[in-house]
Amino acid sequence: MVALPLIQRHKTHRVQVGSVTIGGDAPVVVQSMTNTDTTDIANSVQQVKELADAGSEIVRLTVNTEAAAQAIPEIKNQLLKEGYITPLVGCFHYNGHRLLTDIPDCAAALDKYRINPGNVGFGEKRSQQFEMMIEKAIQYNKAVRIGVNWGSLDQDLAARLMDDNAKRPTPLPADNILREALIQSALDNAKLAESIGLRADQIILSCKVSRPPDLVAVYSELAHRSHYTLHLGLTEAGIGNKGVVATTAALSLLLQQGIGDTIRASLTPRPGESRTTEVTVCCEILQSLGLRAFTPQVTACPGCGRTTSTYFQALADQIQTYLQHQMAIWRTQYVGVENLKVAVMGCIVNGPGESKHADIGISLPGTGESPVAPVFIDGQKATTLRGDHIAEEFMALLNTYVKNRYGKAA
């Protein structure tokens, strides 16, 4: 049997963000961001809860006005009253130095500050305003993400590097210089924060771009040149399949190299689509790579001419949805249930084999096959289901299996 190599994580500092540890040998952390108006306290609280229930372990909120900053402590308090200890991150641009100074309750309530060096200030005020924000992080012992973005890069730095490149005998492509500018901006500002007094184990870096190849190139170099904790994510992944595929491609390549301590999928929701989609994508990426386990997984065949009925497709979807909903309850009752493997197969070709590989699986009859559905538990055929209530009977078997196997470990 061929042994798969273990993913060796890039060595980084451990950063504490509220109740969550990021970096070092801690599991890769999933985070997300609200898209509610932060001043709308009720909706913001509700969305944070939805994101946390979906698996987001850290949630970021926009803090762009005095009213938004004043809302943060109340949002935090309401979440705590309902039992949610999910760390909250304040996303600051342009006026963060003033908001953190003028509204100390906001500075104290947040668990991390997100600072974009390109949007801290301009000219002579830039260093002063950056220092003000770092000093508040030091005062309240908060973590800071220094987040550099392709779309809001420090123009003075970019122009200087471009000028230097133009003087080379053989100038490098402009994209190479912009990637270097991202890396230098992140590292220079991290060192500046340390010189002000922020500890290295309070700093998280991100260098976000919108193209997967650029993201891989930037983070590969950033990991080579530092041991700061790293946050991964495309800055604007896109909408629908494009956003999911781009995010998966970029993050998987880096995570497989051991690079990345916390991730986000910056997806554009379709109208009416839940914000939690971005959380689900991150959880699926980590679970598919074997780095984390969040919810039981359902193996299901894609269907073919042997499975012209949509019955097995409906059953697979029903069971996957059921498992995701049950996890809110099972997570507190059954230790290890997130590792459960279920198979819902559509015919005799691969059905019995895949069902045997799962903890519990069912092989539904394909076209022309006998209308029976053998169920396999822990690799052995346990029973055969027939008739019009196969779905309900299999769900009952599934519930019994979870209770018997994982209830003993609780």
Structure overview:
With 410 residues, the protein is an alpha/beta fold. The chain folds into 2 domains: 15-289, Dihydropteroate synthase-like (TIM Barrel), CATH 3.20.20; 297-407, Sulfite Reductase Hemoprotein, domain 1. The chain has helices at residues 41-54, 66-81, 96-102, 104-109, 125-140, 155-166, 174-196, 212-225, 240-256, 277-288, 311-333, 351-357, 390-406, and strands spanning 15-17, 20-22, 29-33, 58-62, 88-92, 112-115, 143-149, 203-208, 229-232, 238-239, 262-263, 267-268, 297-300, 341-345, 360-363, 372-377, 380-386. Helix 3 (96-102) packs across helix 5 (125-140). The protein is elongated, with a radius of gyration of 24 Å. Keywords: 4Fe-4S, Iron, Iron-sulfur, Isoprene biosynthesis, Metal-binding, Oxidoreductase.
Helicity, as a percent range: 40-55%
Give a short account of the largest sheet.
8 strands, parallel, barrel
Structural class: alpha/beta
Using DSSP, what is the number of strands?
Answer: 17
Order of strands, widest sheet: 3-4-5-6-7-8-9-11
CATH superfamily grouping of the largest domain: Dihydropteroate synthase-like
Q: Can you count the helices?
A: 13
Provide the CATH topology of the largest domain.
TIM Barrel
Mean residue pLDDT: 92
Q: From N to C, what is the helix and strand string?
A: EEEHEHEHHEHEHHEHEEHEEHEHEHEEEH
Distance between the termini: 33 Å
Shape: elongated
Rg calc: 24 Å
What's the CATH C level of the largest domain?
A: Alpha Beta
Low-confidence segments, given as residue ranges, are none
Protein name: 4-hydroxy-3-methylbut-2-en-1-yl diphosphate synthase (flavodoxin)
Function: Converts 2C-methyl-D-erythritol 2,4-cyclodiphosphate (ME-2,4cPP) into 1-hydroxy-2-methyl-2-(E)-butenyl 4-diphosphate.
Binding site for [4Fe-4S] cluster: 301, 304, 347, 354
Cofactor: [4Fe-4S] cluster
